[in-house]
Amino acid sequence: FNGYLQLLSRQSFGSPLMALGASFTLAYLAFQLVRTVLWWRYKSYPVPPGPLPRVTVIIPAYNEGAMVEKSIYAAVASDYPADRLEIICIDDGSKDDTWFYIDRARKRYPKLIKAIRFPKNRGKKEGLYAGFSRGKGDFFVTIDSDSVIAPDTVKQVIAPMLNDARIGAVAGNVKVYNRARSLMARMLAVRFVLAFDFLRASQSMYGCVTCTPGALSAYRAAALKPVLKEWRTQTFMGLPANIGEDRALTNFVLRQGFYTSYQRSAIVHTKVPETYKGLCRMYLRWDRSNFRENWVQLKFIFSKYRSRHRLLPIIDFFMTQIEFPLTYLFLGMLLISFWLYPIVMVKFFAGLGVFTLVWMYYYIHQERDLDFIYGIIYSYFAFFALNWVQPWAFITVRNDRWLTR
Known about the structure:
- This protein is an alpha/beta fold and 405 residues long.
- It is 55% helix and 14% strand.
- The chain has 15 helices and ten strands.
- Strand 2, helix 4 and strand 3 form a beta-alpha-beta unit.
- Helix 7 (183-204) crosses helix 13 (342-367), helix 12 packs antiparallel against helix 13 (342-367) and helix 13 runs antiparallel to helix 14 (372-385).
- The chain is globular, with a radius of gyration of 22 Å.
């Protein structure tokens, strides 16, 4: 570290950059402390007593095979009144036997399941739109076709909206379905808890969860219907916005003045990539849509889109945006210091391990198991193998291919 400081001091830009880095680090740590307090105070909403509303569950599928049947049957097994529930499953022009499993489930539960089959692939957004436009529910629950919900999840995921009329969308608690199948999946299981539970729980405290995920989300029909056509036809840089439909829909809900929330007790288990190639493709798709939707969010985040609770979303937005360029600026300088002062490399990676171990407190507190060790492995894996993904996503932001299909 001393050698790194000596390197910077020899450069005319060293002092300003050090001041910038120190300022950002202090601001980041301060906001992380705020997030920690909010995360600590977070509690799931209870399911209120009384009759439950009509709910439409939507499951879009493409080349999912037998997994879609597991997803459908998990929704059928929900402890939700059957006369208040409808399930719409859409086969988005699959080329495998996905329709066989959807149709078999429909025939088994004809009063509960409606099946739609596209003659050719139209994309996930079109599948969701078909469900949204045909569903009769007061609330909509979306589930990915490679995901399996718990029996009480439908009740739990709409509970925040039943308690608070200001809430227009709710993010579920996404866990890894195939975590035991590979080292990659085990690392992602820890990553999901840290990146999703911690972040969304803290954001939920000020009503601005920035992404209600495709794996499991719920929407108030009154918040959804007015923006469906605009969401369906959304474009970016002259091209259709085909990826990141969940993040985009969240922005449309927020822009209307609704709050977005997180429900930790609404559990879904989803399949994650088990290979490096699959992981990179997933992150590229996520990062490209995030860059696009950050630009969309910028257009309303500083406006009076809602009457209260606007300050923390602005701070959250600012910290998120400034983190990307500063991270890669100082990463480049760090690599130079590794070459000039190899001892800095040893100290940095030792420090990375210590910092990650502290970060694992959130996982241990939440999950109370020993798999946190995979989170430490992930931090080193991400440094060496994933640092290229976000810059490349930024450069290729107009690429709207799904990649994992």
